[in-house]
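In the previous chapter we treated chains in isolation. Here, by contrast, the input contains two separate entities that must be folded as one system, with a combined length of 539 residues.
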Amino acid sequence: MNPHDILKKVICDEEITSEQKEALVTALESDAELARSYIGWLQVRSNIRHDLPPTQDLVLYALAAQGHADDLSHDEASTVSHQWKHLDTVISSHPGLTTVTEQVNLDREAFLECWEAESHQNIFVLPAVMYRIAAVIAIVSVTLFATLFLLTQRESALHMVVVDPGDYQSVQLPDSSFAHISGPATLKYDDEQFGRSVELTGRAFFDITHKPDQFIVRTDEAIVQVLGTRFAMRSMNDITQVILESGRVKVASNDTPSRSVTLLPGQMTDVVHGSAPSPSTAVNLEDELRWTGFIFLRNTSMRKAAVLISNSRNVHVDVDPSLINETVTGTFSPQIPIQEILDALSLTLNASVEKQGDMYQIVP
Amino acid sequence: MALNKFDPKLVRRAQQGERNSRNLLLGRLSKVFESFFKRKLGNQAVVDDLVQCSLLRVNSGLEALQQMDKFKAFAMKAAMFELHDYYRGRHSPKERTYEPQLLPDNKDFINPASGDAIDVEKALAMLTPHARRILELREHGYKFKEIAEMLDTTETAAKMQVKRAFEKMRTIFVD
C-alpha cells in the first residue's frame, strides 16, 4: 500500500500496521506534497474544532431550541438567552452541529426512558375477584407480595457514598469497620445484607474490625480479602494500588483471581486492569499514605514526626534538641485532636507539651 | 401502586445535608446513569467513569437546585454534559481516548519545505454540506460508526465521504 493510501486510512481512524506507520512517517519526511496534505488536513480539523461551542452551551441551546426550555434552571436560561444569537448563528451555519443538537434531544429521550424504568417500583395488586380460586394461588400471591416487598426493602438498603474532589469523609460500616474516604471517590455497599463486602472507586483507608468472616473490597481491577486489618486502596485510571499498614491482606486481580499476592505490613502491590498483581514491595508508610490524612509513625524520629504532624495539621511543632533522636510509633486518624496526639507522644517520651499561640513545644 | 424513588421530599432532605437521604438518592440515581450510559456507549469501564463523574456533578450542584421537582432535568443535564464532554475528549490531543495509532501531532518530523501557508478556508469551501457535516461530527467526538447511525448510512459510506473530501482538499493543500 502506498503512503498516500495509508494516510487516507489514518484520517478515517482505520487500523494500520506498525510497518505501514513507519512507511508513512518516512514518506512524510521526504515527500513534500504528502506532508503538505497531512498538514493541511490537521489544519482543517483544527479550524473545525475551533468553531465548536463549549459542550455545556451546546447542550443547553439544543434543549431550549427543541422546546425543552423548562429543563433549564433560571441561571442557565439567562446565560443561553444572552448567547442565543451567537449560538444560533454558529450552529445554523455548521450542519454537523445541527445534527448534534438533534442528537442531544434523542439522548434526552433515552435518558428519560431510563429514568422512568428505574424510578418507579411497581407493586402488583391482585384483583378481588379471585374468591373461588384455590388457596394455592393465594399462597403464590402472598409469596409474590412478600418477594416484591423484600426486593423493595433491599433496594432501599443499597448505599452509595460519594465524596467530592478534595473532600474527606469517614464512614462507619454496618460491621463497625471504618472507611476513611478521600475524594473524588465512591463507596457502595448493602446496608442491611452487608455481608462484609464493599465496592470502591477512588481512594480510601480501611480500618476493618476483626471478625471470623472475611471482609472484601472490590474495585474495577482487584479484589482484596482480609479478616481484620488496616490498609489503603487507590483505584483510578485502570490501576488499583493496595498498601498495608497492619495485619495481612490477600490481593487478587478480577481477571485472574487464582494469582494472588499476600501483603505484610509496610508492603504494597499494584493491579493493572487485566493483569495479575505485581510482586509485593516495601514502602515508606509515612510518605505513601500521607494522602489518607492519617499520621503514620513507625520507629520514626521525633525530628521527622514533628515535621509530619506540623504538615498534616497545619501547626508548628517544635521538639527539644535532647528529644529529636528519640523514636516513636503510632497511627493517628484525622479526627484525633492535635493536643491528644502530642500528649500521647509525650507520654511515651516521659516529656510534656507546652503551647504558645499556634506553636507546640515538646520538652523533657 | 407505584413508589416514586425520586420523591421531591427525598431530594429536599438530601439537599439539606441528611447523609442517608443523599446516599440513597445518589445510589438510586447511579442506576439511571448506568442504564443510560450503557445504552449510549456500552464499554463498562467508560460507563463506570461517566457514572461517577455525573454523580459528582449532581452531588456538588445539589445545593444550588431551587425546585425539587426539577431534579429529573437537573440529573439529565448532568449526564448530558458528561456524555458530550467525553465525546469531545475522545479526539482531543490532551486526552486521546480513542484514536489508537495516529501520527504525532507536532509536525517537526515533516519535511520543512512543506511549511508554506495553506488556505484552509478555501479548502473548507470545497466541501459538500454532507462531508462537512461528517467532519464536524467527527471533531465533536463521534466515531464513524456512530456518525453513520446518526445519518442513516453505513460506516464505509461515511468514511468514503471523508476520503473524497480529503482528495478534493489536497488540490488546495499542495497548490
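Chain B is about 65% helix and 0% strand. The helical segments of chain B are 8-15, 19-40, 44-61, 71-90, 120-125, 129-140, 144-150, 155-173. Compare these points with the single-chain example from earlier in the chapter.
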